[in-house]
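Please fill in the sequence for the structure shown.

STRUCTURE ENCODING:
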């Protein structure tokens, strides 16, 4: 096992958005990998497009764990927005408690989709003062200026010294012309706020020397990634829609705060979007699908019965992460078959009778090679699933005695399936559910109800009657 891991852990290729090409992955600190992923805006509903990103980075995390790297994985929680209707001065407790409930809901969805928890999930509002300190640094270095009590990052100055903003991840030329007519009267149209002044309608705000307000969104991620992973780390990830301006802003802030030119992370990875009817799934377009609604059968995909959340997981990973998924119920329905075919391998493999032969007809090495090479090639999960299905065919041939396999190779075949289907793709073997004996449950409920009626506890006895009246007719007279 150790040999296999060592063979493949140095051969991971990642499409690095920073360089706009595929590169061999070489961690900054030998076996330690630090990864930061932009997390959800917790006050909004988490839709399927968001889940796609989080599931994909969960697979990277699982794979790196499988390869026995030491990993520090941080995914933040954005838990404020100035439009939220809370007065934090007076009711911080209520605000914080409500956000906590939303966070638990988010965890529940990710748990159903079988995501591992990152090492730490910082809430942005817990690090306001660290953000204010970073803003002070940017002002002190004269890259931040005060305009009507908001603080803006001076892109004109940054580009005069570095000439990079716009080109770092997005490769676009932005105009350096000072646009005097922009709405906020900023020095340059691309200047972005690192601190937003408080308006009378804003209920969420903090006090600073330059007035009340909230930190800009970009400074939150720079601050938290710097705080927990240092000024330069291995992987920074997120959805492709965050590439510009969010990630580009994170980079230039970090370069100024830390006085370096590291661009915050060595490898930048971006997942493509999920569209529905070829339009991006988003809250603003109101065309989003909530994972819960599919699971609870609120959409007509499985005749309104509950769908296993892991089928949704598989659906979202069977397209390469750099390609767009155009959501369709038809394809989701097809995934049900793919899912059960994959999971059924574990039942089928038990039916193989091993042969007492020194060498099998099966090339185990080639099977290992195919699986590891596909995931090592920029996390090509569709190719990995294709290769796992090829194993499925081999197993069929072993069952039918077309191919012969010995004990040791069967053991290795079992291992590789467990590694990739369970540990890395994060699917789960189905447990045999014991059939529920409804008749027995109803009889027990009837007994309890009779005892309650004797005690004249009619509130609960009536409640039980309401529940079981769907199954039997109760005649108390
Ligand atoms: Zn971010």
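FILLED IN BY: designer on duty
SEQUENCE:
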């Amino acid at each position: 096992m150790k040999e296999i891991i060592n063979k493949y852990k140095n051969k991971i290729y990642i499409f690095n958005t920073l360089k706009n090409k595929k590169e061999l992955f070489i961690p900054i600190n030998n076996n330690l990998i630090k990864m930061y992923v932009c997390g959800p805006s917790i006050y909004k509903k988490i839709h399927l497009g968001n889940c796609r990103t989080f599931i994909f980075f969960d697979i990277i995390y699982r794979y790196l764990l499988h390869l026995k790297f030491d990993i520090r994985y941080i995914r933040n929680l954005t838990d404020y927005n100035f439009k939220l209707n809370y007065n934090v001065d007076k009711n911080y407790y209520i605000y914080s408690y409500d956000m906590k409930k939303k966070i638990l809901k988010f965890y529940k969805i990710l748990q159903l989709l079988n995501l591992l928890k990152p090492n730490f999930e910082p809430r942005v509002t817990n690090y306001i003062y660290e953000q204010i300190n970073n803003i002070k640094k940017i002002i002190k270095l004269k890259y931040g200026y005060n305009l009507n009590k908001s603080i803006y990052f001076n892109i004109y100055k940054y580009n005069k010294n570095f000439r990079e903003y716009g080109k770092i991840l997005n490769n676009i030329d932005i105009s350096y012309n000072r646009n005097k007519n922009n709405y906020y009267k900023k020095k340059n149209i691309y200047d972005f706020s690192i601190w937003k002044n408080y308006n009378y309608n804003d209920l969420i705000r903090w006090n600073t020397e330059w007035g009340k307000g909230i930190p800009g969104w970009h400074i939150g991620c720079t601050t938290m990634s710097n705080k927990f992973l240092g000024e330069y780390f291995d992987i920074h990830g997120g959805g492709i829609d965050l590439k510009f301006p969010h990630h580009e802003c994170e980079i230039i802030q970090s370069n100024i705060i830390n006085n370096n030119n590291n661009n915050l992370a060595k490898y930048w990875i971006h997942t493509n979007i999920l569209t529905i009817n070829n339009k991006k799934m988003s809250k603003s377009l109101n065309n989003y699908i909530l994972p819960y609604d599919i699971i609870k059968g609120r959409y007509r995909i499985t005749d309104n019965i509950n769908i296993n959340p892991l089928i949704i997981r598989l659906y979202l990973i069977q397209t390469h992460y750099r390609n767009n998924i155009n959501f369709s119920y038809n394809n989701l329905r097809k995934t049900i078959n793919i899912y059960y075919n994959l999971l059924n391998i574990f039942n089928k493999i038990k039916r193989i009778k091993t042969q007492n032969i020194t060498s099998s007809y099966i090339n185990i090495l080639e099977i290992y090679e195919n699986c590891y090479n596909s995931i090592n090639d920029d996390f090509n999960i569709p190719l990995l699933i294709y290769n796992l299905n090829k194993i499925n065919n081999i197993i069929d041939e072993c069952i039918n005695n077309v191919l012969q396999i010995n004990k040791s190779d069967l053991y290795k075949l079992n291992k590789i399936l467990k590694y990739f289907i369970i540990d890395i793709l994060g699917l789960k073997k189905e447990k045999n559910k014991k059939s529920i004996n409804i008749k027995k449950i109803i009889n027990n409920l009837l007994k309890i109800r009779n005892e309650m009626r004797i005690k004249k506890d009619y509130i609960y006895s009536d409640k039980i009657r309401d529940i079981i009246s769907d199954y039997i007719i109760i005649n108390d007279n």
